[in-house]
Amino acid sequence: MVRIPVRAASVLDLVAVEAIYAGEVRQHTASFEIESPDLAEIKRRWVDVCNLGLPYLVAHLEGGVAGYAYAVPYRARPAYCYTVEDSVYVAPWARQRGVGLALLRALLSNCEIWGARQMVAIVGDPAANNASIRLHEKAGFRSVGTLVGVGRKFDSWLDSLMLQRPLGHGISTSPGDPRVPA
Hints:
Oligomer: single chain
Shape: globular
Number of helices: 4
Radius of gyration: 16 Å
Number of strands: 7
Strand order of the largest sheet: 1-2-3-4-5-7-6
CATH topology: Aminopeptidase
Largest sheet: 7 strands, mixed
């Protein structure tokens, strides 16, 4: 298998990120967004992730952005500060080539360095997104529950599958503060 280069996303990558995500929003049910965000909103979200010191990554293949991944705080309340939620999207032309796994492995590593102890993945419409479930399971996630009918898109009620994976020492030791650089 060919090695997939993964690096921190730059502002120049965001046009490709917007295009990948727009297709997902308009045509599929992994994301419960109804309208795809414009480039300004994609940039704002990227800045927010970067300002937290969390990873926002892109993978390159054949001279283009093949996919992207990022982590955000799972919830805003302070008790959740050691838990992050991932998002991984791969361009249609780059699927089934190891891009998603390369991105997710790099994301896991970067989130461990940041200080996160748990990562949560929320897969929208698990019946239609088996590839995302398999990707997360391959990276060590396990299913922890299904939220039934919590989303509505394309005139259908959609479930969300929650998966979880410990990072670093998980809950076996007391952590440092992930908001304070080491």
